[in-house]
């Protein structure tokens, strides 16, 4: 089993090493220019500790009205610019967040958003970071095959369903359902990868 986590806390070489020594293998961090985003120095520290890095792009993304094709076009451009700025390899995936309890009525907007992202995101694959319901709605439709931002591809398989709102990462062809294993200081959701 491989463990990973997402966090808004900046990681240093020391904290990344502690997490690696604890048994984590992946860190999911945020692209952009805010208090919760990572930069090139942090990417090097994370990788230097032996952790693989997955990039998430999230601005607001926490209400249904956010998800339009024009917003996807804008976010795709911005995400690509930030990915290049931190040295993310072309051909890897950027995971776009859908951070609200989306219902079936919201899925068309989310699909329109991803269509917009795909129109402008040229150097990277499109991934999605959201609930189980969102993953099922888009599975096999608009998402392309990706790999971790920094590191080799991993075959991800469906794990088990936990609670009503389960955060997920979608790697097309294989679906990873996030298992909330524990909360640790400075760590958000913890992932169980098989």
TrEMBL record:
InterPro entries in the record: GH (IPR017853), Rv2525c-like_Glyco_Hydro-like (IPR015020)
Gene3D superfamilies attached to this UniProt entry: Glycosidases
Sequence intervals crossing the membrane: 165-184
Secreted is among the record's keywords: no
Top-level taxon in the UniProt lineage: Bacteria
Pfam family, one: Rv2525c_GlyHyd-like
Domain Rv2525c-like glycoside hydrolase-like positions: 18-139
Keywords assigned: Membrane, Transmembrane, Transmembrane helix
Name of the protein this chain belongs to: DUF1906 domain-containing protein
Species of the source: Siminovitchia acidinfaciens
């Amino acid at each position: 089993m491989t463990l990973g986590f997402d966090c808004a806390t900046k990681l240093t070489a020391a904290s990344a090493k502690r997490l690696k020594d604890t048994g984590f293998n992946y860190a999911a961090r945020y692209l952009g220019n805010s208090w919760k985003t990572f930069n090139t120095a942090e990417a090097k520290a994370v990788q230097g500790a032996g952790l693989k890095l997955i990039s998430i792009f999230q601005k607001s993304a926490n209400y249904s009205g956010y998800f339009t094709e024009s917003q996807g076009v804008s976010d795709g451009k911005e995400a690509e610019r930030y990915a290049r700025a931190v040295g993310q390899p072309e051909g890897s995936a950027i995971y776009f967040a859908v951070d609200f309890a989306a219902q079936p009525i919201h899925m068309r907007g989310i699909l329109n958003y991803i269509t917009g992202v795909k129109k402008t995101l040229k150097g990277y694959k499109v991934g999605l970071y959201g609930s189980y319901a969102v993953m099922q709605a888009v599975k096999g439709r608009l998402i392309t095959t990706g790999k971790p931002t920094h590191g080799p591809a991993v075959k991800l398989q469906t794990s088990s369903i936990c609670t009503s709102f389960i955060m997920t990462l979608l790697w097309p062809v294989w679906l990873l359902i996030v298992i909330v294993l524990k909360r640790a200081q400075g760590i958000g959701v913890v992932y169980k990868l098989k």
